[in-house]
Design goal:
The chain is mainly β. It has helices at 9-17, 22-30, 33-42, 313-318, and strands at 52-57, 63-68, 74-79, 87-91, 94-98, 105-108, 115-118, 128-130, 133-135, 139-144, 155-160, 165-170, 177-178, 186-192, 195-200, 204-208, 218-223, 235-241, 244-250, 259-265, 271-275, 281-285, 291-294, 305-308, 326-329, 335-336, 350-352. Helix 2 packs across helix 3 (33-42). The longest helix has 10 residues, at 33-42. Residues 314-322 and 358-373 have low confidence and may be disordered.
């Protein structure tokens, strides 16, 4: 019988680089220790991964469920060291976790379980005590500038306080830094070409150069054209499409579901140019940082579509109408479901990019896989 563990490490690394699906990569590393070492050294190609839909944790456990579109709706389970009731915001393969009890914050890599401790952001807001209860800040989104697995020069920006304020923390900082943004009620943030961009519910876009000499100052660079004033007050997102920054308008849940995409033309004073077709791209929106993939590389991903989840917490918890999720087709404006089963009504599903930790010191194997050597 052939000794598969005796294959040259260089050959194993080249084989592992050809693997497209996470499950196949995991199984490759489960064969034996030499194969696991080769997979760890080669790392997993995460540049073109379909996002996983993060569902609810199992009741009274730390088990989190993930819905895998690329595997035809297969459900994965991960045992995560996260306290029940915590707020979770996916970004670049990491989970930014805020504890419900005291707003302590960490970044958790869900596959390797690596944890990065962050400063407590409670100092960003004035302490509010009512009837003996201290009210903690409310968080809306968290976005990384770079994957901490790949770079130590990362920055994390958050939308907080329920009214869309902005703050950031750099690797090694002991406290959060608030941003003096020229916009109010920030709706979304995105990192693009070494700068953070934010858009508010009024359709105004600001940029913050966190790497520059004045990282706390925001600059207003664009605002919605007067011809589109009817869109003001609705949800706006920021994303990247064909190496361009785009703003995406989402209609209110009570109206017919419509998404409109606009390119921000920086060569003409930040003009909004409507994009009618996404080509081969698909965009994933929600409580996560926006994700764009080339759908032509995936058999089960629909091109020219927007995959969206509900990011209205009040509507999601209080009303069946608030469970506003699906796949929006830009060509015919139709909507179809991407996940038909109900998740826990207290946990809004969100998209997670499946990144593997490139560190050879941390295990690359998720907890749903049993290793047998």
């Amino acid at each position: 019988m052939a000794d598969w563990s005796g294959l040259l490490p260089e050959l194993l690394m080249e084989i592992s680089k050809k693997i497209d699906l996470i499950q196949d990569f995991v199984n490759f590393g489960c064969v034996c220790k030499p194969w696991l070492r080769a997979a760890s050294a080669a790392k997993f190609n995460t540049k073109c991964r379909l996002p996983l839909l993060m569902l609810a944790e199992k009741e009274k456990t730390h088990v989190q469920e993930f819905y895998d579109i690329s595997m035809g709706g297969q459900i994965h389970q991960l045992d995560l060291p996260v306290a029940p009731g915590s707020s979770i915001f996916p970004t670049l393969g990491w989970l930014v976790v805020v504890l419900e009890t005291n707003a302590d914050m960490i970044m958790l890599h869900p596959l390797s379980r690596r944890i990065i401790n962050l400063p407590n952001p409670i100092s960003l807001t004035e302490e509010l005590v009512e009837n003996g209860i201290t009210w903690l800040p409310h968080f809306l989104k968290a976005v990384l500038s770079a994957d901490p697995c790949l770079s130590s020069d990362w920055i994390l920006m958050i939308i907080y306080d329920g009214i869309g304020k902005l703050a950031f923390v750099k690797n090694g900082d002991k406290a959060w830094t608030a941003i003096d943004a020229p916009i109010s009620s920030c709706s979304d943030i995105y990192y693009y070409e070494r700068r953070f961009y934010g858009v508010d519910y009024q359709g105004r876009i600001a940029v913050c150069d966190v790497h520059g000499p004045n990282p706390t100052a925001g600059l207003l660079i664009s605002r919605i054209p007067t011809s589109l004033n009817a869109l003001v007050g609705c949800k706006f997102y920021l994303a990247e499409w064909c190496e361009k920054l785009v703003v995406i308008h989402r209609s209110l849940p009570k109206f017919k579901k419509v998404f409109r995409v606009f390119e921000i033309d920086f060569t003409h004073k930040g003009n909004w140019v409507e994009v009618s077709h996404l080509g081969s791209k698909a965009i994933f929106l929600g409580f996560n940082s926006s994700i764009t993939v080339d759908a032509s590389e995936f058999r089960r991903c629909k091109r020219n579509c927007i995959y969206f989840t509900d990011d209205s917490l009040e509507g999601y918890v209080d009303s069946e109408d608030g469970r506003d999720m699906g796949i929006y087709n830009m060509a015919n404006r139709s909507v179809e479901p991407h996940f038909e089963e109900e998740s826990c009504p207290e946990i809004i599903p969100r998209w997670l990019e499946p990144h593997f930790d490139g560190s050879t010191r941390a295990p690359l194997i998720p907890s749903w896989v049993q290793l047998n050597f």
